[in-house]
Design goal:
about 425 residues, alpha/beta, 2 domains, 7-stranded mixed beta sheet, 4-stranded antiparallel beta sheet, globular, binds pyridoxal-5'-phosphate, pyridoxal phosphate, methyltransferase
Length: about 425
């Protein structure tokens, strides 16, 4: 047997025996994985249903149409393109559809919780090929809509792209749409993180306000790694050619043959998301995050935005004078998997940021509830307390070696390994979908 399968088995064991608290991760159902791993991977189907460049696509057309119809119905939109390979290509495709190089775009900065593809300067497609204007958060970790409006009036972006990857509070879609309308910009809402919550009625939908919606399908939506671009009625009113522009930007603009195995997985996950159980799930995700955040706060930790209104929590480790790297590494040895993350107005570099990001979508899929959130909060706090003496060196050159030595040191640490044993016991009671 190929050694890859041995490694897959090892990864399966890791996922089973540890707590995934990375807010962008989840467990796709067996049915979703069955579709993704199916013989559909063998087929080329460049083009769109009914308009392919290859023969043999009768059944593929039916599958892609099913995914499209389900997306349209679920999100109440007149058009959905289910071919984008993932979230970053989807956002690039929207920009190619709406803009010419050099045009102005406006988005929330990465450091404030926005995504790289929303105009991060210099190193990304969106920041290199367009004139990117970025905005951040005020000292209270809020979006200052007065300032945002002034900036939009001054810079006149053609696209306002809004959606977050590390921001715990609800985004006010209506306020963004008022500003976009005032400057005649397209409002693109990227709901990658919260699509499943929106489907479950646990987070406000931007459908009434946006012209275009992009989303990944593998986060709270619990589907395969993929993405969708949707055009709203408001979008069609602004620009009747929007459907054509988006579809052409996806293929042949940026992509070749669609991954129909993934598209089948998207169709399956959308059918799961329409069920009552999914609504219950989405509400529990938000409730679990609230309980986890409240417990962490009660223990004295500082949370960005003062808590959460979604699935996501950002812990600000500056009061502890700790680096996100130290805490994330120690939590991993304890069987709790999170990611280091910048916090708003962080002065530390992105690779050694001052926070950690947590989320509840995956543990909620396992069936965990309030009681387990309290236990997880206890463990997180114990680990943070345990590593509080470890300071990242001021000298930036010695940081990488410091982390390497720190990792070696904690690998066999009895305190952390004892927590990982308890984590394993908890995980056994809440198996991952298989
Ligand atoms: C808001 C947002 N948009 C886009 C993306 C990019 O998705 P992908 O990693 O599938 O390219 C992410 C991924 O984390 C995201 O959080």
């Amino acid at each position: 047997m190929d050694e890859v399968f041995n490694l897959i088995k090892q990864e399966e064991k890791r996922q089973e025996e540890t707590l995934t608290l990375i807010p962008s991760e989840n467990y796709a159902s067996y049915a979703v994985r069955d579709a993704v791993g199916s013989i559909l991977t063998n087929k080329y189907s460049e083009g769109y249903p009914g308009k392919r460049y290859y023969q043999g696509n009768k059944i593929i057309d039916e599958i892609e149409n099913l995914a499209i119809d389900r997306a349209k119905k679920l999100f109440s939109v007149p058009h959905a393109n289910v071919q984008p390979y993932s979230g970053s290509p989807a956002n690039s495709e929207v920009m190619i559809a709406l803009l010419t190089p050099g045009d102005t775009i406006m988005g929330m900065s990465l450091a404030s919780g926005g995504h790289l593809t929303h105009g991060h300067p210099d190193i990304t497609f969106s920041g290199k090929f367009f004139r990117s204007v970025q905005f951040g958060l005020n000292k209270k970790d809020e979006i200052d809509f007065v300032k945002l409006r002034q900036l939009a009036l001054k810079e006149k972006p053609k696209v306002l792209i809004i959606g977050t990857t590390a921001y715990p509070l609800i985004l006010d879609w209506e306020k963004f749409s008022e500003i976009a309308d005032e400057v005649d910009a397209y409002l693109v809402t990227d709901i990658s993180h919260v699509a499943g919550l929106i489907m479950g009625g646990a987070y406000p939908s931007p459908v009434k306000y946006a012209h275009i919606i992009t989303t990944t399908t593998h986060k709270t939506l619990r589907g395969p790694r993929g993405a969708m671009i949707m055009v709203t009625d408001k979008g069609l009113n602004k620009d009747p050619d929007l459907v054509k522009k988006i579809d052409r930007a996806v293929f042949p603009g940026m992509q070749g043959g669609p991954h129909e195995n993934t598209i089948a997985g998207i169709a399956v996950c959308l059918n799961e998301a329409i069920k009552t159980e999914f609504k219950i799930y989405a509400k529990q995700v938000v409730h679990n995050a609230y309980v986890l955040a409240t417990e962490l706060k009660n223990k004295g930790l500082t949370l960005v935005g003062g808590g959460t209104e979604s699935h996501l929590i950002l812990v600000d480790l500056r009061p502890q004078n700790l680096s996100g790297n130290i805490v994330a590494e120690a939590l991993e040895i304890s069987g709790i998997v999170v990611n280091k993350n910048s916090i708003p107005n962080d002065t530390a570099p992105a690779f050694y940021p001052s926070g950690i990001r947590l989320g509840t979508p995956a543990v909620t899929t396992r069936g965990m509830k309030e009681k387990e959130m309290k236990q997880i909060a206890d463990w997180i706090f114990e680990v943070i307390n345990y590593v509080k003496e470890f300071r990242l060196p001021k000298n930036t050159k010695s940081r990488s070696n410091f982390i390497k030595t720190f990792k070696q040191k904690i690998e066999k640490d009895k305190f952390l390994l004892a927590i990982s044993k308890d984590v394993k016991t908890l995980c056994k009671r809440f198996p991952i979908p298989n």
